[in-house]
Amino acid sequence: MPDGASSTCPITVKPGHSFFLEVGWLWQPNQRQRLIRSFNDKGQWVSLTLVREQKVSSGHYIKG
Q1: CB-side neighbour CA atoms (13 Å) of 40
Q2: Could you read off the pLDDT of 42-53 as tens digits, one per residue?
Q3: Phi/psi of residue 38, each to 5°?
Q4: Full-model pTM
Q5: C-alpha dihedral sign at 54, 25, 50, 46
Q6: 62 has which bridge partners?
Q7: How many Å is the Cα radius of gyration of the chain?
Q8: pLDDT tens figures, 20-39
Q9: Residue 1 has pLDDT above 60, yes or no
Q10: Are strands 60-63 and 19-28 parallel, antiparallel or unpaired?
């Protein structure tokens, strides 16, 4: 979403399968951040990752 936020999640979570949830947002016109929360096959939270990306050209971001 331009100047907004995004989210990613599975449509269904199957028992016995790991999965992740992600939210992202533009915090400056050329910089985006994403939080990714991962869960194991038992549904237990195992990690939280912050990804910072900087736009280097039209439509392309690099992780930093």
Answers
A1: 5
A2: 999 999 999 999
A3: -105, 145
A4: 0.78
A5: negative
A6: 54
A7: 14
A8: 999 999 988 888 999 999 99
A9: no
A10: unpaired
For 43: left if phi > 0, alpha if psi spans -120 to 50, otherwise beta; the answer is left
Strands annotated E in 4-64? 5-8, 19-28, 31-39, 45-57, 60-63
**CA 63, CA 40: separation in Å to the nearest integer?**
25
Reported confidence tier of residue 62, pLDDT bands at 50, 70, 90: low
**Predicted pLDDT of residue 29:** 82
Query: Is-contact 51 36, C-beta < 8 A?
Result: yes
CA distances (Å), origin 11, targets 8, 21, 22, 62 = 9, 11, 13, 28
Q: CA 41, CA 56: separation in Å to the nearest integer?
A: 36
